[in-house]
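Researcher: For the record, we're logging two predictions in this thread. I'll number them. Prediction 1 follows.
Model: Prediction 1, sequence and structure:
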Amino acid sequence: MASNSFRESKRGRHAQANHDVGDFNCSLKELRSLMELRGPEGITRIQECYGDVQGLCTRLKTSPIDGLGGHADDIARRKEEFGQNVIPPKKPKTFLQLVWEALQDVTLIILEVAAIISLGLSFYRPPDAERENCGKAAGGVEDEGEADTGWIEGAAILLSVVCVVLVTAFNDWSKEKQFRGLQSRIEQEQKFTVVRGGQVIQIHVAEIVVGDVAQVKYGDLLPADGVLIQGNDLKIDESSLTGESDHVKKTLDNDPMLLSGTHVMEGSGKILITAVGVNSQTGWCRRGDAAPKHQPTKEGKVCAPGEVDQISGADRQSSRLSQFVIIKDIFLFHCVHSYPFTCPGLFMSGLTVIILITLFMVDTFWIQGLPWVADCTPIYIQFCVKFFIIGVTVLVVAVPEGLPLAVTISLAYSVKKMMKDNNLVRHLDACETMGNATAICSDKTGTLTMNRMTVVQAYLGDRHYRVVPEPDLIPGKVLDLLIMGIGVNCAYTSKIMSPEKEGGLPRQVGNKTECALLGFALDLRRDYMTIRNEVPEEKLFKVYTFNSVRKSMSTVLKNADGSYRMFSKGASEILLKKCCKIMTANGEAKVFKSRDRDDVVKKVIEPMASEGLRTICLAYRDFPPADGEPDWENETDILTGLTCLCVVGIEDPVRPEVPDAIKRCQRAGITVRMVTGDNINTARAIASKCGILQPGDDFLCIDGKEFNRRIRNELGEIEQERIDKIWPKLRVLARSSPTDKHTLVKGIMDSTVQEPRQVVAVTGDGTNDGPALKKADVGFAMGIAGTDVAKEASDIILTDDNFSSIVKAVMWGRNVYDSISKFLQFQLTVNVVAVIVAFTGACITQDSPLKAVQMLWVNLIMDTFASLALATEPPTESLLLRKPYGRNKPLISRTMMKNILGHAVYQLTIIFTLLFAGEQMFDIDSGRYAPLHAPPSEHYTIVFNTFVMMQLFNEINARKIHGERNVFDGIFKNMIFCSIVFGTFVIQIVIVQFGGKPFSCVCLTIDQWLWCVFLGFGCLLWGQVVTTVPTSRLKFLKSAGHGTQQEEIPEEELEEMEDLDEIDHAEMEMRRGQVLWCRGLGRIQTQIRVVNAFRDTMSPYEGLETPESRNSIHNFMTTPEFRIEDSEPQIPLIDDTEGEDDAPTKRNAAQTLPPHSKLATLPSSPNQNNNAVDMVIPLHKESPKISGNPESAVLPACPGSPLNSLETSL
């Protein structure tokens, strides 16, 4: 334990220097050399040059007690003299650099070269007499005027390439700008606590200057270098700079040097800032050119230029952008290269070129029988270049290079919107990963609860008070000890402030549990600040700070007579075990035996905990001078023999929005587990209030001790098989340590008992939560209560510490996944159609129906515009109605493949019909077999225009990927989509009507335009036909991809889906239709038998179904499920999502089938008026056990006559 290492002197208290006179007595170089020293060397330098830390403060014109005065001119002068606390980020790439990078694309380079060759050869003219010897395709004299414009095509291709490059560069620039904005937002969130003008305030990290006195505490990430002024049990993790994982104790006597980029792992204290920004140790390592030679990086190597990214800690604060970009690039690489589109594209483009050249050679030199003429060689080369350009355009369209752009836009858009939903995303890939989360391990305090704690019950003087007692009821001696203990044994950074608004609640600053105790002192009408003024922090003799191992905090005071008094507070059941006495109602201490302790636990602590209260024990101990100086390092002896003062119950209300958020998570297939350090009874009560535990659920609620007993073998080793027996049913883990949380997370992630592997999200706020946050697939840190260490280890920061924000993150994550799938569905449809049209058309007509410039325009529609339109779809609540996809589900599901192939069939049919019969349909000249420099034709313009129109309408179809019929649902909520579709349509009009030769287009008439739009609109109608076809009927699609994994579907639904791979709306509608027919026939038969019963005056039930098995039409309309025997397994309706955690029994098991009926029906309503509202059947709750008689399992029948039965049926 490190003792309080600062002893106040009168000179130090009044050492505030005149900041307006004279220069600083320390140079930047002097301070820099000081901070390069460690341990005894640093102490020696301070003693030789300054005398002590007080002397250094005097030289820097600051006070160790009151800090800087905070005057603006003084702060500005310090920034000018010693630098700002900012490490400049890496200079962003200029727009020209991004243009140059975009030009490196291989396909664009090939197009550029081919276009330049085509442009040069287009100016060559063979002699007119010999032109006919070059073949029919070269054209005749009548085409000479058109030949003069042959250069336009090559120039248009070059211009298109320039447009593509500029658009790509602009997209990269905007992405870079968004990432810079994200980096700026993160930096703005970072604040640090300093003392200025005697007031403790929080300022932005960039505003810290040399001479500031900063308060450091458990969990902080040090933003600058400093020298320790006063410390309590301070331990620092310097692994980010030295590579050593052991925590380093910091004391004035041992090692007072604290470095930027290191983490405070234990304790608290004050430091004098001596170096900031590029002059700090982390800044030196970043600069690399002049780093201290002995300063190693994380890998143990000396800092050098180019190794900046290896530095962690504060360095990460200014280099997170590079982390984002690296993660993004890796993520995009996997996205693009997961689908081998490039090889088929290369094959098709190469095959197209070979076939075109072969057909040209055969036609010219064999069919036409023309000899080789030297003057025609440039013409032949022009043809080859033209064919080559066609092949390259096939390649451009075949490869979905827009996928990285779609992923990036979707992620960037989601990240920007998630900020408004209180999710600050640090790692972009976490955004998409969160959409597939199957488990959330959540903290309790602040996340599920409001983190505004109040003492509401107390056990004082052998009496349990259900409300805070009046001070008169408490013995004076006990009250004095209680207030003294609360005042000095709570961190001095914790305090109760006046409310911001008149009539509001007081503000709680610092640790909320300590604020509850300080509020308790105020409720007892005593001022804790009086105690703190009498005993300032510097006079505390010894502080044992709270950590996850101790689960308590103790502060030692030295009395004037040489004795010591220690105040302790901590978890009640732990601290009571260390108490041997307890204060009574008369203010005297009596012996506290184990039997008495059991009574207190049973009668006080457990009732408090069962009400959801956190129980804290307050105790003290005296050390008489006669016993000599205690061994303060021996905690076991020190923290024993305590006298219990009181036990308080602290209320932390559940956030009102949390129960609904947890219900939405459970409905979405996500299991929520509470992992807390609180008492197991408190945890169970809060879990029940939140909805994590439901009455009658067969789930586990255990504490850390029991958890470790179950998962470890006889040798104390953790076994995965043992964890696998616990975690599926575990819902609450109480009194857990950070190690327990890490073990649980790792056990769930490594488990193979459920396939696919679980995707785990974890929330954490403490320094020791770092390992669990890093281990989890997605780590959430608390933005308000979280430490810097936890934030540094996390992927997403919850700026409001609210669990409901996690649900929003799930929704956005699923939306990212679906947005990418939507884009893929659209782009692959265009890919398939464009490649087949270009390849088939070129092979048959020796020319591509879609020209190179037109292909580049189509590619622009596919890539940039479609990315913007489909990747910016806002999320909807329906995303939370499905189960997580799992880790191994491909982006292209079978339903998507059905849509891609279905729409491709329609588009290919239309295009080929127009290509080979369009001239007859529209009574125009054919555009097939045109010479080399022939003018654009109406025929091919109609083909091109219809193709683009079909893509525009198919873009609307692509908004739905699960077979939904209403593709317009929510379309006007996405104005980006509407704007892009409308803008593309307008540009297409301009291209067709005014594009002319560069775009190979001619003006079309109104009638032709209407036909093109009508054929494009047909995509929407055809989409309804494709949607109607159930995916399960298309067995051949299995090879193209599989749908939802069986493990992603609840067991009760699996029983009804035996042969079905994927849930799609067409299948549901078909099932619904079949059931309606069967129910209708069954009802008609029932009614006929009822009429016959009356006619023949038969017994009321003779020849009829029993009343128990009949349903009214009202009941049918309110019944979400039904079963038909001897029919195929059906898919539950989409709203059958409740009760998924119930026992996996068959649904409606109690509704057995009468022997003479094929229709299993639900019991009829006891309501004689057949009011559908009264028909409430707990479909998903466990049914009563079925006896031997099948009719005994149903609900009691309502008495009725055949008339009543007829009325019910009707």
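Researcher: Logged. Prediction 2.
Model: Prediction 2, sequence and structure:
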Amino acid sequence: MPTNFTVVPVEARADGAGDEAAERTEAPGTPEGPEPVGHSPGDGSPRESVPFVNNVEMERESFFEGKNMALFEEEMDSNPMVSSLLNKLANYTNLSQGVVEHEQAEESRRRAAQTPRMGTFIGVYLPCLQNILGVILFLRLTWIVGAAGILESFLIVAVCCSCTLLTAISMSAIATNGVVPAGGSYYMISRSLGPEFGGAVGLCFYLGTTFAGAMYILGTIEIFLTYISPGAAIFQAETAADEAAAMLHNMRVYGTCTLALMAVVVFVGVKYVNKLALVFLACVVLSILAIYAGVIKTAFDPPDIPVCLLGNRTLARRGFDVCAKVHEGSNGSATTALWGLFCNGSQPSASCDEYFAQNNVSEMQAIPGVASGVFLENLWSAYADKGAYVEKKGVPAVPAPEESRDSRLPYVLSDITTYLTLLVGIYFPSVTGIMAGSNRSGDLKDAQKSIPTGTIMAIVTTSFIYLSCIVLFGACIEGVVLRDKFGEALQGNLVIGVLAWPSPWVIVIGSFFSTCGAGLQSLTGAPRLLQAIARDGIVPFLQVFGHGKANGEPTWALLLTALICETGVLIASLDSVAPILSMFFLMCYMFVNLACAVQTLLRTPNWRPRFKYYHWTLSFLGMSLCLALMFVCSWYYALFAMLVAGCIYKYIEYRGAEKEWGDGIRGLSLNAARYALLRVEHGPPHTKNWRPQVLVLLNLDEEQQVKHPRLLSFASQLKAGKGLTIVGSVLEGTYLDKHSEAQRAEENIRSLMGVERTKGFCQLVVSSNLRDGTSHLIQSAGLGAMKHNTVLMAWPGSWKQEDNPFSWKNFVDTVRDATAAQQALLVAKNVDLFPQNQERLGGGNIDVWWVVHDGGMLMLLPFLLRQHKVWRKCRMRIFTVAQEADNSIQMKRELQTFLYHLRISAEVEVVEMVENDISAFTYEKTLVMEQRSQMLKQMQLSKTEREREAQLIHDRNTASHAAAATKAQAPPTPDKVQMTWTREKLIAERCKNRDASVSGFKDLFSLKPDQSNVRRMHTAVKLNDVVLTKSQDAQLVLLNMPGPPRNRHGDENYMEFLEVLTEGLNRVLLVRGGGREVITIYS
């Protein structure tokens, strides 16, 4: 809708800064500072230039000189003034990506301001007309009408033109939804469907354009060798059977030379090609006018062009002039040259071909005219097999028995087997070229108006030309002449040429230059398209083709295009090359329709095309029609083209650069994700669908680097790319102060996730303390039903260090939070010893110590780990603990049955733990643990004294451990090795060892240890001893993780229990279930 602007003058400043601003306004082409440097390919940023560029460093000084806008100084630091924004929008240029290098900024802008822009007719209509009308119209359309008949030919043309019309409607909607820079259809598809689809379809469009160049070159050589100068053939056929092979060899030689010449012309200067484009277009228009003039002339004066028939078989005018067996001369009747071709002598008594002897020779007019009634004869199809005679329907003939055909006989034969789908593939390239207008959007005065109007009008015009030509050809020309592909019955003349007026040479010369021009245009456009794809950086191995000469010409891309085009030239058959490029163009058009349909259905806010005559149903119909035509033309070519596009798609997805172009596929993914999240929101998943959705808690160092990268390796091994993975971390501080550090930390985590190939999401929280931040992550990470159900973290190895007093508190509180949230907890101890993703464990065991039931987590985790190639060769062993009252044999049998029903293969062993007295070592270890905790709470020591005190306690603990080991090796004595502790025994033991104690610690045993702590320590020591005996050499040990004490005063003792439980083991995974079953025996 129109908007009225009122410009209010602002009082001029006395310092003259307003004059400087005025000068900048008057000369917008003058750069105010260094030009914005484009991002290098593959940097994750879009290549297209954006007019909303904030050159803060250049403009800030001029902004802040006055006081009129002082209120908005803070906003000016990041946002431009409206006047500056409008100035940039007005001066926004759209240079093609192949010519930026040699365009100086000031000169290009001044030239753009002075050069008149092209309108709809010159800029879109005529280029589309030139690209659509081409070689198929002149060389194959008459043959298609003869083989398929008027009705089926009309159907072929109508379907193909409908396909391009629907594609043009979709393309018009996309092209009018903003500025379309260089790249044309590639740009539209990639920005609408994302870099993967854009790269795949862009390369398919490039291959189609390259093979189109090969087709035009082959058409040029066919016109030259067949209709202009047949004597220029290098390879001559000795027999008629060798003519096809000789023609192919000639096409290859001349085609290669022509390709090299055209490549040199394109390399030397594209401007010459553009200047000749108008000449080539004039040739096309004059040729079409000559065809219509010839059709009108046949209505009242049909041309006298006889065709010779033997019976109902068409004869090629090769080796004879008179269409008769004998002719009357002054000396009587004599045999003709035709007689000599079919008989073994010129005498009337010579033996002749049986069919020749039994049938008469007759002549008919090749072009009887519009009023002759031949229209009804050509209405139906006349498909034929390869090598079949071109016969006229309705002419009486005596059939002859099938004999070995003599290739010397001058019959007109079908060179290939014809059928409807083959003709569709051969014809479709004649309706391509609808993208010519969108490729020139930067040169148009009003691209958003010109592209839809010009393209659709060009399609309507060419569709009318093709449909009318089908009807007129069928109404004017005999069917046998239409099916004569190379005009052999017309003495080697072009069929459409003999119809034209005033001379056949108008069509021959016009079609020759037209195909030459189209070939040059293809060799000019294809390298620039490849250069645009290479410079986008989405296909890494193509980046070399983004470079070129100093003036921006794509030299390397031109070389690759010439090599690919040469493969098409070596095929040497126009009818074989046409279906190949049909596949690539159809795929491109299919994705243009898909892009429009996706954008329309998503209703994204940015989807506001100026072209309003579109609908998603039309786009979907066009997409379906393109897909159907691909398989109709050639199902194996279609599968090959889709395979090529699929491989390119997966390569870009796997190795390509990350791009954010606001594409429709991303929007479609978001919509699908929202729909799926809403569907699975209700209730927890069934046990059969349960898998660990892991929240990985990482710790960062002062440089915001991850402390334990192996934790991510283990997470990826556990997940194997399936399920949800959230990598979380906490920064201590406030967000306003730490936001830059948070961004750097998040980038470091993401890069590490890429190295470790961890597929998941990163979530970093800035909190006032680590404890609250971790709690927030456990509570709020994830979205809807896509929330984690398992927390993975590393064991705090520094929990005993005095400079980190809150490490164990945070750990224990995290355990409590996970338990309260009913989430499973995995704690990896010695995580830096865990294998990396590149390692392969050659064997060993994964030992599971199943002490208490945790919902099946201990069973499920080893199974998931063994799916990964790191752990695949490891065996699984399950140990369970039996008390004195348990039946060990029955427990083992029942556990084996349980594993059988779970479909899990594992060795089973039941370990018996005999009830015995608590050892002196256990009691002393408990006592030292409590005494240490009590001392650190009560004594207010300096840091140095605390470290000395802790070291002494550690030495005492070590000495006690050594003493216990010595006692274990000595002969058993009832009062030192195994004893039940009572108050009297404890007093006696203290008195016995009092003299050997350190004097500073003579009151160390003044406190009585808590009996529950003694029991817990006893369990930890005994279980650790059993685990070390069985699993010390295991690759991984999984243990039930005891729960924290209900009384928070014993948290540090809890850490000591876990330390003792896992002491001496290399790789340990402590597992705590989430309170629900995660594995089931049912299907």
